[in-house]
Amino acid sequence: MTNDLLAGQLRVDVEVTETMAAWFKAVAQTDAERHQPPVVGSISTDEYQEMFKAAKERVSSSSSGLHYTLWKAMATDPAMAKFLSIMISLPFIYGFACDRWTNAIDVMLMKKKNNCKIHMLRIIGLLEADLNTALKFFFAKRMMWNAEATGEVSNEQWGGRKNMSSIDAAMLKCLTFESARITGDTIGSIYYDNTSCFDRMHPEISNIIARKHNVDTNILKARSIIIQRITAEFGRVWGLPKNTMEMRTGEDALR
Question: Which residue in 44, 53, 214, 250 could disulfide with 207, CB within 3.0 to 4.6 Å?
Fold first, then answer.
């Protein structure tokens, strides 16, 4: 079904709303997207060394204790980097998950100083450092290269993009209002910032969008298995037991 959807040839037996029909049309691959390079699961030695060189050592990670300092140190040795680049590639080439990658830590951060009310806390999931770095390589780098090359990313999307950082968006907003103040114009501003927007990103949908940008199905399968099996430990400082989260895998979108 997904192949038909990407080819723009999906046919269903039920009535489709105008909104769904528009979504089907938007998801179908364009000619430019079909000719973009495939995002495959192999990571070369040079790419392995480069992605850990760029990683920030102070970033929190890894319930196993194998934090970024260790991975950055190992990546500086060519022989070790060659071996580790093969090991980190295998799950994404063949579509499986390492047991260590299925453990995470959910940390609760205060949105406002000294306010520990549960609804005012932001939950951040800390993955294993090597898994997190690999996912950034495949999705934030390779997949986004394809998306940017075909012009599929909206001009309204700021943050994590070249010359379109979140700071650039804030500056543009500031200059817009300052210009209106100087010229005496009346303007209005509408913000489309959905509550819990990242929680709304179902794997079924993100896998289809990733395939639209030529991400290999085994990369998506490995990610889906990790989501299905992941066990999160909620903040060690709280003394809470481990909690196994029931997650939707999105593997239906791989067929």
Answer: 250
Query: Nearest-CA neighbor of 55 among 146, 134, 142, 108?
Result: 134
CB atoms within 10 A of CB 104: 21
184 pLDDT band, cuts 50/70/90, is: very high
Which amino acid, 146? N
Do 196 and 70 touch, CB atoms closer than 8 A?
no
Which backbone phi and psi does 232 adopt, to 5 degrees? -110, 135
Residues of the chain with pLDDT > 90, as a percent, come to 49
- Report the C-alpha gap between 91 and 243 in whole angstroms: 25
- DSSP, res 198: G
Would you state the structure tokens that stand for residue 197, as one six-digit string? Answer: 């927007």
Enter the pTM of the model. Answer: 0.82
What's the DSSP call for residue 193? -
CB 149 within 8 A of CB 221: no
- In angstroms, the CA 71 to CA 88 distance is 12
Asked if residue 39 lies in contact with residue 213, where contact means CB atoms within 8 angstroms, the answer is: yes
- The answer on pLDDT for 196 being more than 90 is no
